[in-house]
Amino acid sequence: MPGSAFINFLFLLIARHRVRHLAIFIISILVVFLVGTVMMVTESLRRDMQRTLDDQADVVIQRIRAGKVVDLPTDWVYGLSEIEGVTAALPRVFGRYFHEPNGTHFLVVGVDPFDSQAAASLQELVDGLDLREFLGGDNMVVGPAVRRFLTENHYGNEYIFKTPDSRSVPVRVLDVFSHESGLLSADLVVMNQGLARRVLGMEPEMATDIALLVPNELEWDGVMAKAIARHYDIRVVLKRELATAYENLFNYQGGVFLLLYAVALATFLLILYQRYSMITGSDRREIGILRAVGWSIRDVIALKMAESLVVAVAAYLAGIILSYVYVFVLDAPLLREVFLGFGNLPQDTSLSHTLNPGLLGLLFLLFILPYSATVLVPVWRVAVVEPVEAMK
Amino acid sequence: MSRLTMAFLGALILFLLGFLLVLLDGTTAAEPTYAGPLTRLTRLPRASFSAGWLEPPVPAYRDAAEEVFPGMRPINYQDFVHAR
């Protein structure tokens, strides 16, 4: 354990070489900040995605014709729900509605009036919503970005959808999803299934696809095989494939940034090596005096390593604090658009607060270990200088 | 201990406290409650197209599958799942 004299001398050295340490401190903060923000944004989105995966359909049945996904008849649900292991088969009605003047898309989703779980969820999401009124007429609940779009374009509380068969369907905005849910509901337009079919130009007894709930994961492959045996022209998507797709996607996006980090870190370490390799006359005299008064090479190396590690650890802590403030207090301006996209309706949702201590530990190792290794060699070269030579 | 040492130790302790606060806030923050109900309502994996995780960050990466095969799905590994 170093004594107080060692610690006093250590901080005295840091203060003496403050210009050199300040430059390294600032660059170190930038390096940690760069990778810290990417890790935090990715982790937050990944967690949000995993939360939605729990309530996803376990198996999705889509009809494929000539390489395209086409609508399928809703009466397929009777046959599919008879497959062993399937607890519910739910026809889904959804699609994109393109608003041509602005080049933006809404995601129109139809709610089955007889789906009690969907009705309960809608009630949970929108306080005080009159379900009877919502499902009974031409009404919709919209996401926050859609609401803003309607306001900015002077649509008020009614929007007139143009259907593919050139009819106009006026729909009243009954309520808005909360700003917090913007990550998932920004461009969402929820209405009853009959109305959604009219807006999307679908036949009355057709659905976009069918979602199957199969609680036992071991039965998913069996259900898929039986579904294909019943309907040859289908594509089956399992929940685990969806999870893998998301994982790969985040790894790809995060990987691009980590690659940038690797390049930045390598450059930084090179600068660091050069900086510590430049031994000035006063540095040599300093080491020489220490050696002359009885310090061993090991003591000198310990002092010099401690000097650089104090700077590195302080920079790491400051970098993480700044990353956290940037991502979760300021909502990661610029970086959020890179991860969330900026092609459709603009959204200003907040990222959910989440932090993985394991990732912080990994970042600590990825930063401190190369840093220490880079500093060690020049420090050793300084420390082994003979006292007589050093003081000449 | 000298005043200089005390000042440096104070600064380091402040950094450490800030880091611990960040860690505490990040690991104990309440989970958002909207994800479950919204997913049960839509049954869709990613309800919002505006949150385009599939939108590539670099435009040049966008492949031309849609232009080359208008309206068709590009062949991917899901087709082999289908074939199975």
Secondary-structure map:
The complex is a heterodimer of chains A (392) and B (84).
Chain A: H1 4-16, H2 18-54, E1 59-65, E2 68-70, E3 72-73, H3 76-81, E4 88-99, E5 104-111, H4 116-125, H5 131-136, E6 139-142, H6 144-152, E7 158-162, E8 168-176, H7 182-185, E9 188-192, H8 193-200, E10 206-207, E11 209-213, H9 220-230, E12 234-238, H10 239-277, H11 281-292, H12 297-329, H13 335-340, H14 357-383, H15 387-390
Parallel strand pairs in A: 5-9, 6-8
Antiparallel strand pairs in A: 1-2, 1-11, 1-12, 3-10, 4-5, 4-11, 6-9, 7-8
Helix pairs in contact in A: 1-12, 2-10, 2-12, 2-14, 10-14, 12-14
Chain B: H1 3-28, H2 35-42, H3 65-68, H4 77-83
Question: How would you characterize this protein structure?
Answer:
The complex is a heterodimer of chains A (392) and B (84). Chain A has 392 residues and is α+β, with helices and mostly antiparallel strands. Chain A has two domains: 4-51 and 245-390, no CATH class; 59-213, no CATH class. In chain A, 57% of the residues lie in helices and 17% in strands. In chain A, strands 1, 2, 4, 5, 6, 7, 8, 9, 11 and 12 form a ten-stranded mixed β-sheet that branches. A two-stranded antiparallel ribbon of chain A has the order 3-10. Chain A is elongated, with a radius of gyration of 31 Å. Chain B is mostly helical. Chain B has one domain (3-83). Chain B contains four helices and no strands. The longest helix of chain B is centred in the N-terminal third of the chain and has 26 residues, at 3-28. The relative contact order of chain B is 0.05. At the A-B interface, helix 1, helix 2, strand 4, strand 5 and helix 4 of A face helix 1, helix 2 and helix 4 of B.
